[in-house]
Amino acid sequence: MNDINRRLFATIIFLITLLGTAGILYYSVANVADNEDPKPALKSNAPTFDSTIAGKNEAQLSGPLNLVYSDGLLFITDTENLRLAVYSQTGSFKRTIDLRAENIAIKPLGITIDEKRRLYVSVSQGSDNTILVFDRSGRFLYRFPEDAGNSGSYITPGKAMALFAHGDKLYVTDIVDHDIKVYSLEGDLVTRFGRPGSAKGEFLYPNGIAADNSGKIFVSDSNNARVQVFAANGEFLRLFAQPGGDALALPRGMALDGKGRLHIVDTLKHKVFVFTKEGRFLYSYGKFGTDDGGLSYPNGIAIDTTSGKIYVADKTNNRVSVWE
């Protein structure tokens, strides 16, 4: 074989080897891409059902709407029983806080707790609506904002629904004014934003609120079937993307977990949707029903960020559903 033929033969062998290697790499990458479905991996991170809290006899819950977790105790707005119900994190009944006064039915709606362990409860009292403040033992302290020690001029919500205490602020969704009001814990209005409507930054019955350490505010814009995100000063930032094929229907209670993920209860979908704080949908958990893992028109949610346990107010099942 002459030198030219040898060089030609060597070149052909080199090209065959190169093409074969490229083909193997392409096949491997293509297979990974085709088989790479993020849903199974995300699904494996979804919480699993653990237990239910319902109570028995005089401790039986009736229409629990919202709840908050603090230092081993779960405070539940036991709405149809006109009281707060207090349970341990393991589901043991502790006590109730009766809200009835002067034969007027006082229905608890939203609830939160501040760093000084004061409970804030939005209530419907006949035609009156207000926020009542209690200590952890259930002793009434004062009305908010009028008796919180403000500078003398205060603005009360039209009808406070969801409450969220974080740092030195109390965040309130107002379902009469269709806006968000942010107060200092002394009752002074820090900022308010929103108005009735469906455009960006507008609300229809906002019901569910949370804020993170950076000051971003997350709002369940319930009757607009969406979640909106705002800067600390109330400037609109963005809407959350809707999960493909399973859009939000009636988002209500929301809570941030220890990894910064936002859990949003959807009352009409009977499940909880989970997003990153940037709005990327991750997964959902729950289903309609009365059996284990079933939910029926759930509303509120609380998360123990230490243990990772999640508590969902399972309203028409008259119980709290626990996930972990």
Summarize this structure as a short list of keywords or feature phrases:
324 residues, mainly beta, 4-stranded antiparallel sheet
Short description:
It is built from 2 helices and 26 strands. It has about 325 residues and is mainly beta.
Describe the structure.
The chain has 324 residues and is mainly beta. The protein has 2 helices and 26 strands. The chain has helices spanning 3-35, 38-44, and strands at 49-53, 64-70, 73-78, 83-88, 93-98, 106-113, 119-125, 128-134, 140-144, 160-166, 169-174, 179-184, 189-193, 206-211, 217-221, 226-230, 236-239, 251-256, 262-266, 271-275, 281-285, 287-288, 294-295, 301-303, 310-314, 319-323. The strands form 7 sheets. It has a 4-stranded antiparallel β-sheet with strand order 1-26-25-24, with no helix packed on it. A 4-stranded antiparallel β-sheet has the order 2-3-4-5, with no helix packed on it. The protein has a 4-stranded antiparallel β-sheet with strand order 6-7-8-9, with no helix packed on it. The protein is globular.
